[in-house]
Amino acid sequence: MDTTATAGRPSPGRLAARRAPDRGAGTIEMAIIALPLLIFTFLVVQAALVFYARSIALGAATQGANAAREYGSAPGAGEANARDFLDRVGVGLEDPEVNVRTAADSVTVTVTGRATSILPLVSFEVEQSARGPVERFIP
Predict the structure, then answer these.
(1) If 110 and its partner were Cys, which of 54, 72, 125, 129 is the partner (CB 3.0–4.6 Å)?
(2) pTM for the full model?
């Protein structure tokens, strides 16, 4: 009878008995890790939505400023172009407001609104401006 092959190893029954206290540990570890991981995921998505809303507001402000500063443009061209841009994009910036300020030599278009929020009871205000010189004919 050769006992050297199994002399150093515990029997399968003893091995299972030794691992028994660890049963369910993976489930508990996952439950502990799941909440912070879920919160982190929501924060990353919310940060992306705020960045997207800022990009939309800047795009609308730039389109409005470009239209308002053109030589011979109509008085409401800047606001109309900014609103048209916001209508074409459609989502990402809630309750947008367009403000056009015209000086003798420059135009400033400011677009404000709220970023889409997936977090309850939280609102992220967004404001972007674009400024440019008014084109004029100089002989």
Answers:
(1) 129
(2) 0.76
